[in-house]
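The material for today's practical consists of a large collection of protein records. Backbone structure tokens are a discrete shorthand for how the chain folds in space. An example says more than a description, so a record of this kind follows:
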Amino acid sequence: MARISREGEEIIMKVYIGIDWSENKHDVCFLHETGEVLLVKQIPHTIAGFQQLDQARQSLGVGRQEVIIGLETAHNLLVDYLWEQSYEQIYVLPPAAVKSAQKRYRQSGAKDDAWDAHLIANLLRTDQRCYTAWQPDQPLTRQIRAEVRFAQQLGQEVVRDGNRLRSLVLRYYPAALDAFPHLDSLVGLAFLQTYPTLSQAQALSFEQLKVFLREHHHTQVRSWPTIQLRVALGSSRLQPGAGCSLCPIGSRPSSHLGNLDPHSPSLSGAVGQALPAAPGSCDL
């Protein structure tokens, strides 16, 4: 399909592949350099699906070096697969450029994944000179990027679960919030897990509270009497006994939040050690 013989001379024709990606599936459009649509298909986001794309290319009689591939992200296993299979002409188009180009071809703003794949292929066909071919990062840089993204996701989970925990504690244990306003702190989470009811907290002597605070590295010694006073003066906003039924619910997310700490030494330490040695790390 991509080769035409003319008077003994072999002319190689280009084929453009546009991919509209998503988490679970990808829409793919094969476009001849003349603008003719050769094939449109949908593949799952699996190795078997990636192989279907390669098989479709073979069925058209097109070599890997003769296709030019475009999609809107480089952070996808499909891109890694294509590069490992020697597809070297890969272009990552800015999503904003693709979106702005939609009006050049149709007025409707309705979402159509197959049409978007065709649009990406056609943009490469007409405007390839405007884009730079994608090159993979060094393995160490890719590892750091993955760890940084993972830390960011953990941070988002901490905020979400922290807000849920705060709403719950406000209902059944407001004294804990009075004593430790920042529930995402390790000492605040440990207090909820160790003393999950107001009665347990109020049974603490000042000496026992000081031992607890020292064990959890609470260094603001001058605030310790205030913490005890706030706990001692605390009252439940629920009917007697209602707080106890909610205690397991409150202690469970507090334990989960402790495990999700994005500033844990193991995670931040690994990123910190690798960062100085990574080529292009300043671009992170």
User: Anything to note?
Assistant: The longest helix spans residues 139-172.
